[in-house]
Input
Amino acid sequence: MAFRKDFLWGGATAANQCEGAYNLDGRGLANVDVIPHGKDRWLVATGTRKMFDFEDEYYYPAKVGIDFYHHYKEDIALFAGMGFKVYRMSIGWSRIYPNGDEETPNEEGLKFYENVFRECRKYGIEPLVTITHFDIPMHLVTKYGGWRNRKMVEFYKRLTRTLFERYKGLVKYWLTFNEINIMLHAPFMGAGICLEEGEDRFKVLYTAAHHELVASAWATKIAHEVDPEMMVGCMMNAGTSYPYSCNPEDVLLAQKTNRQNYFFIDVQSRGRYPGYALKEFERHGFEVPAKDDDLEILLNNTVDFISFSYYSTRVVTTDAAAKRDKNNMLDSVSNPYLEKSEWGWTIDPLGFRITLNELYDRYQKPLFVVENGLGAKDEFVNDTVEDDYRIEYLRKHIQNMKDAVDLDGVDLLGYTTWGPIDLVSASTGEMSKRYGFIYVDRDDYGNGTLKRYKKKSYDWYKKVIASNGEDLD
Ligand code: BGP
Output
């Protein structure tokens, strides 16, 4: 058998993409609430267009999401029906600390997640909890400027201590920041930052990065103090960047691009800033704003495992004329050997094996795949979806993951597909970009009953889990 006996199969969601109930039970406004659907979404996510509150002419899909807040029992029962061993989900920070800087947490928010975790446990499902999935109380953005402000470290420490103490015994696996590297590309979504006129982008973003890295190390320390059984992981948006040609210039550029992506994980996993980053900082006249015992905290509190999302690989070239597209939030040149999804994301199952190997070679720590899947347009007919394309995508990816374990010796803890139930897309705000085994009746503009239906892939994934990945047919 390729996968370990206790391999954690399951699915992953994020609070802001499924919970809804944005203003219920004391929850405060969050940055993710005010990122609209439509053409300005990316401008807001990157902080290019400042939107700190709802504006009349926009539609905000996070307000309702798929209303997981009121459907969680039904949804977890559906996950259990597939035999999930793990459910990855995230905490809405502003549910726990509505403004982010209070001294005491909001009991109703804490209770909600406790209920969700207990519901998971009822079915023997292990919760895997992302503390921050692109999620910051809006008050911390408007009053403190998001993660560019060092005070955020203290607020985050308070949040994490509250969570660890409250959920001790209920939650073992934690991730500190979802796709931490994305904050460099979408600063408002990833770090609550809109760059002000005259600010030096590099300095602001790497200052914020330092704060997140220190906060992450603190969280790891606190978790281990509260409960030595807790396992804390980092999380990156992965996918190797290939050189377009064997021209050494392209190869060097690919190496540089990969390092830029691995930068955060290098620090979280090894405990110190890598030499290539320090040199880059020097060239920009930037000094790491390390204070007090920051460097010691980083060094002594590295993560227990490495988690990542994998959707596609990317291609880089020094040829300025080559056409570049967005490929899962990052730029890439088209790969002539591979096909793309309807949203232009390159499909590269073998690249999954390559990425797994690269990460394991680099860090030598257990890996956890916490996102992978195909966003596609589904046709809902006779109360179901015949989503053979989704099965095909997952089959090939799981086969390559299996090869990485079985043939290459990668140590892998588990696999959670992205969006086991349809939810709002992070990059586009659409519902029509569907990933689920479970269909949700809701469209891009908020119409629909929110009723849940099983797709064809539901039974397929159930069989994959029951056979521990042996039966992929
Ligand atoms: C990752 C995010 C998720 C998720 C996924 C799919 O980058 O961590 O939140 O949404 O991508 O992306 P999208 O929803 O844009 O298709």
Residues 201-226 form the longest helix (26 residues). Residues 14, 17, 178-179, 237, 309, 371, 375, 418, 425-428, 433 surround 6-O-phosphono-beta-D-galactopyranose (CB under 6 Å).
